[in-house]
Design brief:
It contains seven helices and 39 strands. The protein has 819 residues and is mostly beta strands. Among the domains are: 50-141, Cadherins (Immunoglobulin-like), CATH 2.60.40; 155-250, Cadherins (Immunoglobulin-like, Sandwich); 263-366, Cadherins (Immunoglobulin-like), CATH 2.60.40.60; 373-456 and 495-508, Sandwich (Immunoglobulin-like); 516-625, Immunoglobulin-like. It is elongated, with a radius of gyration of 73 Å. The relative contact order is 0.04.
Length: 819
């Protein structure tokens, strides 16, 4: 069996479909007229060609694109054609009976360029394959349906200003989705729509280039260029797309700096210190960035001495500052020139230079109130020590620069002279001592002197208002006209200008200290030492300043009987030596006197003593014993005796301490008893009294004045330490109706006359004042009463004097008788 593909070419002209025979088919077709011995026929079930479909075609009905036919198909209707693969049944359909293939919708080559399908012929009744399946391709034929696009647009590019013609700026690229291998649908041509005459574009490559020279950024910095890409080789009917290219001219240093004005004028006060900003200068440079950085300098010498100029942090402005102190009285104006220069210069643009400019600057110095100026920056004065108060030390001087004739007032700041060793004359700045100085205590005195300027009127008023003061602390004796020197800072006017200066005063040395030994010397010498042996090197010190004043000479004991000798070493030290004969041993150490002399004016001397003990030494020279017990005097006490004495003393001390402790304890006990005095205590008890009839609880007969008592009754005398056995008879109640007042008076008289019953109105009044009282008893217990008309003893209270006048008025007046 063999198969044949029959192509329907009837639709080729109308539908654009085309069939191509494969090589085996063409070989078979060439043998159609008769067999040729030279050619062999190859049997195949299928003979294929490719099918083509024009994209974007849409008709009212499905479009026939080809037909499949097998040689097993006899036209009996028993053969069925099947189509599988990409788009089968949706995009492409086949007539099962005839094998006609149709496309059901328009296709886009840009979405899918070809479809791979699989065709097979089967038996309609049994679906048994009649031929093996074969693969074929349906290709979508391109048409010019896509315009060019710029996928990277819009573009931004930069090119230096002043570039030459033809300088490459950027390359633009367009993309056409059509098939570049079929026709001119994807053949692009580039043109400039907008941006002429500044830029051009290569038609084939799309490279944008400069078209004119010397484009100046300062004139126009940015350009917008429109580039078009057209397919079909740029011919009519082609599709086109465009994009924009923003071209920015980058800056180059092609412009020199330029001052906007030729003269700058500034002013500054004379008190402005170094570094004070005077003003700013800016030279204009239209360039940008580093191309506009500038450096400023002063050309003239007189300006560079007083002022300096530097560039600010931005590199654009020149900062004019003060370099050294200014003085209005010396110079009132400065004129100089300032130059501005670009720091970065491009050699390619030197022809557009020079890249610098010059301007004139005038600075006027303004007058300002200035504090007084001292003639020296610091003063160094000297004065000898031990001088009398008021000794001249030196003088400081200051001048008012604004008004040289203006007076100055001087004073010493208190914190710089806490000890008040100096004083200063407020009018002329003369410094004097306020007391004796001691160089050995303090060598330097650092004072701070304040100079304050005062106006003429203020100074005159101060002088007119000053009162003469007697010379006192810090005053110069006999200087009564000038007044007292000022040791401290006075109260100054807040508006006055003042300045300070350091004054260092050195205290000069005088020979006022005698030499002394450097330390106390207590040494020893062996009893076996050889004659002239060195015992000790002795050093001396002189607190006076180095020189002749501090040179010390030594003089020791002289004569043949001297136990030790002194040798002056001429270097501030001396050697203590044994004499030719050794010193006799003894218990007490030797005291060697030494005289110390200095070489100052006047010569001062002192005497010192060196203690030398004669000791027993071992063979190696170490001390064995300096005071052996055998050499103790017989009058000394033994160790046992000393212990006994100490024990006795300790025992006595213990007894004394015990005695003092017991005595103190006894005194404390007495103090407790005194605090518990019954007269100051309230004793509480639970016994209830028997009322007025209970007279057995008290016996106050001991308190009665025996001299003022009534005469004893006949019979045996009554005892005063016990209650009487018999009571005074109670007077009967008067007959008649009961009178309460009369009854109370009766009972009161009975109580007063009864010596065995205390008065119920007071139990703390004693009736006995003692036998030695000249005025007798003042108690009513032993005295008579005039109540009820009963007479009693009466004493002339008026005769006792004015101290008892109140008492006489209370008790001396007689009551009127009852009606």
């Amino acid at each position: 069996m063999w198969g044949l593909v029959r192509l329907l070419l009837a639709w080729l002209g109308g539908w654009g479909c085309m069939g191509r025979l494969a090589a085996p088919a063409r070989a078979w077709a060439g043998s159609w007229g008769g067999p040729e011995p030279s050619l062999l026929r190859t049997r195949r079930s299928w003979v294929w060609n490719q099918f083509f479909v024009i994209e974007e075609y849409a008709g009212p009905e499905p479009v026939l694109i080809g037909k499949l036919h097998s040689d097993v198909d006899r036209g009996e209707g028993r053969t069925k054609y099947l189509l599988t693969g990409e788009g089968a049944g949706t995009v492409f359909v086949i007539d099962e009976a005839t094998g006609n293939i149709h496309v059901t919708k328009s296709l886009d080559r840009e979405e899918k360029a070809q479809y791979v399908l699989l065709a097979q012929a089967v038996d309609r009744a049994s679906n048994r394959p009649l031929e093996p399946p074969s693969e074929f391709i349906i290709k979508v034929q391109d048409i010019n349906d896509n315009p060019p696009i710029f996928p990277l647009g819009p573009y931004h590019a930069t090119v230096p200003e002043m570039s030459n013609v033809g300088t490459s700026v950027i390359q633009v690229t367009a993309h056409d989705a059509d098939d570049p291998s079929y026709g001119n649908s994807a053949k692009l041509v580039y043109t400039v729509l907008d941006g002429l005459p500044f830029f051009s574009v290569d038609p084939q490559t799309g490279v944008v280039r400069t078209a004119i020279p010397n484009m100046d950024r300062e004139t126009q910095e940015e350009f917008l260029v429109v580039i078009q890409a057209k397919d079909m080789g740029g011919h009519m009917g082609g599709l086109s797309g465009s994009t924009t290219v923003t071209v920015t001219l980058s800056d180059v240093n092609d412009n020199p700096p330029k001052f906007p004005q030729s003269l700058y004028q500034f002013s500054v006060v004379e008190t402005a210190g170094p570094g004070t900003l005077v003003g700013r200068l800016r030279a204009q440079d239209p360039d940008l960035g580093d191309n506009a950085l500038m450096a400023y300098s002063i050309l003239d010498g007189e300006g560079s001495e007083a002022f300096s100029i530097s560039t600010d942090s931005q590199g654009r402005d020149g900062l004019l500052t003060v370099r050294k102190p200014l003085d209005f009285e010396t110079r009132r104006a400065y004129s100089f020139r300032v130059e501005a220069t670009n720091t970065l210069i491009d050699p390619a643009y030197l022809r557009r230079g020079p890249f610098k400019d010059v301007a004139s600057v005038r600075v006027a110095v303004q007058d300002a109130p200035e504090p007084p100026a001292f003639t020296q920056a610091a003063y160094h004065l000297a004065v000898p020590e031990n001088k009398a108060p008021g000794t001249l030390v030196g003088q400081v001087s200051a001048t008012d620069l604004d008004s040289p004739a203006s007076p100055i007032r001087y004073s010493i700041l208190p914190h710089s002279d806490l000890e008040r060793c100096f004083s200063i004359e407020p009018e002329d700045g003369t410094i004097r001592t306020a007391g004796p100085l001691d160089r050995e205590a303090r060598v330097w005195h650092n004072l701070t002197v304040l100079a304050t300027e005062l106006g003429e009127e203020s100074w005159a008023s101060r002088r007119a208002g000053r009162r003469r003061q007697p010379p006192g602390r810090g005053a110069v004796p006999g200087d009564g006209v000038r007044g007292v020197l000022v040791p401290h800072t006075p109260t100054q006017d807040s508006s006055a200008q003042a300045s300070r200066v350091q004054v260092a005063i050195q205290t000069l040395d005088e020979n006022d200290n005698a030499p002394q030994l450097a330390e106390p010397y207590d040494t020893f010498v062996c009893d076996s030492a050889a004659p002239s042996q060195l015992i000790q090197v002795i050093r001396a010190l002189d607190r006076d300043e180095v020189g002749n004043n501090s040179r010390v000479s030594f003089h020791g004991p002289l004569g043949p009987d001297a136990n030790f000798t002194i040798r002056d070493n001429q270097d501030g030290s001396a050697s203590l030596l044994l004499p030719s004969r050794p010193a006799p041993p003894r218990q007490a150490p030797y005291l060697v006197p030494i005289e110390l002399w200095d070489w100052g004016r006047p010569v001062l001397s002192s005497t010192a003593t060196v203690t030398v003990s004669v000791c027993r030494c071992r063979p190696d020279g170490s001390v064995a014993s300096c005071r052996p017990e055998a050499q103790l005097s017989p009058a000394g006490l033994s160790t046992g005796a000393l212990l006994a004495i100490v024990t006795c003393v300790g025992t006595l001390l213990a007894l004394v301490v015990l005695f003092v402790a017991l005595r103190r304890q006894k005194q404390e006990a007495l103090m407790v008893l005194e605090e518990e005095d019954v007269r100051e205590n309230i004793i509480t008890y639970d016994d209830e009294g028997g009322g007025e009839e209970d007279t057995e609880a008290f016996d106050i007969s001991a308190l009665q004045n025996p001299d003022g008592a009534a005469p004893p009754a006949p019979g045996p005398p009554a005892r005063r330490d016990v209650l009487p056995w018999a009571r005074a008879p109670r007077q009967p109640r008067p007959p008649g109706p009961a009178d309460v007042a009369q009854l109370l008076a009766l009972r009161l008289r009975e109580a007063d006359e009864d010596p065995s019953v205390p008065p119920y109105d007071s139990v703390q009044v004693y009736g006995y004042e003692g036998r030695g009282s000249s005025c007798g008893s003042l108690s009513s217990l032993g005295s008579g009463s005039e109540i009820g008309g009963a007479p009693g003893p009466a004493e002339p209270l008026d005769d006792w004097g004015p101290l008892f006048r109140t008492l006489a008025e209370l008790y001396g007046a007689k009551e009127p008788p009852a009606p």
